[in-house]
Amino acid sequence: DAKTTQPPSMDCAEGRAANLPCNHSTISGNEYVYWYRQIHSQGPQYIIHGLKNNETNEMASLIITEDRKSSTLILPHATLRDTAVYYCIVRVLYNQGGKLIFGQGTELSVKP
Amino acid sequence: DAGVTQSPTHLIKTRGQQVTLRCSPKSGHDTVSWYQQALGQGPQFIFQYYEEEERQRGNFPDRFSGHQFPNYSSELNVNALLLGDSALYLCASSLASGVRDTQYFGPGTRLTVL
Fold first, then answer.
1. Where does B44-100 show beta strands of DSSP type E?
2. Cβ-defined contact of B58 to A2 (cutoff 8 Å)
3. pLDDT tens digits, B34-43
């Protein structure tokens, strides 16, 4: 079973920041938080991952709470092309098991 | 730099038949994972191959089998197809090096079983 909980859907206005929450209250110390997104009928796209520090790349920012029990993915200026299902996943490093366990994700709709 | 590629894009089979799906990993990657995604669901892990051996397996019957070749490409075979095998089959590649083992997905193969 997935170890994360996400809202099933969210709306965001184009040009505004999209903040997608994720709860992972049972996360272990050696588990990373990963985010992927999937645009309809395409393969999931890797976005970002982190352990305990906040992370930023060209696509998004990842904010992890100090107790690591929850995180937020931030898309700073959402566009219509960001409409997708966003998956939050916790997993250990490769040597301890490489599989990704997907939940239902959050369906983000970016509206004009 | 080519990403993960999969073939074919779409496939239609009938119940009882066998199917082979193919995956070429991203350049420099040595590990291939396969996932099944039913309509409206998140992807489910089938198995993972590294050094031409099945390294980890999800909760799928033996009808699902795979292979990895010396060039790191991989095949997924499904025997005795059932209607419930209709899904998007996704391949993901990664590099077996700890923190650099992020999985990158291909576009998938849409399998329809009639």
1. 44-50, 53-57, 64-68, 74-78, 87-94
2. no
3. 999 999 899 9
